[in-house]
Amino acid sequence: MKRHRKRTRRWSWRKRAIAAVLGTLGALVLGEIIVGSIFKMNFELKAIMAPIPEDETIYRLKPNQELIFHGMMHDAPPTLVRTNAEGYRSSEDYAALKPGDGIRYLVFGDSYAFGSGVAENETLAADLKALIAPFVDRPLEVWNMGIPGFTGIQSMRLARMEAERYHADKIVLYFNHTDMAGRTLRYYGVAEWLNEHFSLARFFSYVLRPFVFANKKDVALGLRTAASELGKTTAAANITIVNGSKHKELDTILVEYGALAVHVADIHNDESNYLTPRDRHLSPEGYRKVATRVFNEMYRFDTDLFGTSTKSPSPKTDPAP
Q1: What do you get for the CA distance between the two ends of the chain, in Å?
Q2: Which of 265, 274, 220, 219 is nearest to 242 (CA)?
Q3: Percentage of the chain modeled with pLDDT above 90
């Protein structure tokens, strides 16, 4: 009788364990179905990305690629994405030598700098060039070196390397709040495989992590770590930070390294500037607003470039911060 009771208790424990496992699996499957039906992310751009584990930036864009992209949530108008021979978003190759007395801007950052969902001539780099060109009497180049998914650390490391290689005069670093959180370099391993194949993993990585778990302290830690990379850049005094974060107090970190900080969080958070209702990347009009504000701040503080200009910029399309 005692032996029978022991077997019964042991079987009851096993049944509870099996029921718990099956219940958990059922909840995960149900959650995957529900989240997957409303949170569909697009990984088309991964086709033009190449892991480079030995490189400081972990991965880059493949050179000489072309594809049609439908936005991060797969609900935006199709746009053509091209990469040049150097692996950056441009139809033209980037030459190391500058033309004569020309001036060269390099724009770094994440998918916002890259211009996710908009055409090549609608990105921040293209808009800035159009705004700056009438005010300078020298050859002007503004190059897009944004890479989707880059953290602040990766972008600043890339800026440090490429500023010297391409003899940059000015650097623009454009960040959104979500890609500044924490210090971890984003790379293509197990985490990215899970994000690509499971909606729940994507929901945690792109919604819960940046907006729930990435508090002000996390963002400050990521930004200070990234700023340490900025301090290694020879052109630190000529750097403009385009800050899409809502944490304005973080500018004190950036100013330590001689950077000009421009706030654009209000533009990022205005739904009328979204690419689509579900895709928080900016529309062409949203990028024009960001570019206008950045240009106006540059005009006020960059006396080396604009100090002799007799023209005055028009801030009419720049919403108040």
Answers
A1: 79
A2: 265
A3: 35
Burial tier of 310 (Cβ tally within 10 Å: 0-12, 13-18, 19+):
exposed
Name the 3-class secondary structure at 278: coil
Average model confidence (pLDDT) across the chain: 80
Residue 224, CB half-sphere, CA atoms under 13 Å: how many? 10
Three-class secondary structure of residue 148 per DSSP: coil
Are 152 and 178 in contact by the 8 Å Cβ rule? The answer is: no
Pairing of strands 79-82, 170-175: unpaired
Place of tokens 């969902």: 117
pLDDT of residue 151: 79
Q: Are 298 and 305 within 8 A, CB to CB?
A: yes
Say yes or no to pLDDT of 256 above 60.
yes
What does the pLDDT read at residue 271? 93
List Cβ neighbours of 42 (8 Å cut-off, separation of 6 or more): 69, 70, 71, 72, 73, 74
Lowest mean pLDDT among 1-5, 81-85, 266-270: 1-5
Q: Are strands 49-51 and 59-61 parallel, antiparallel or unpaired?
A: antiparallel
Tell me the residue ranges of DSSP E strands in 187-238: none
Give dist(CA 296, CA 318) in Å, integer: 9
State pTM to two decimals: 0.82
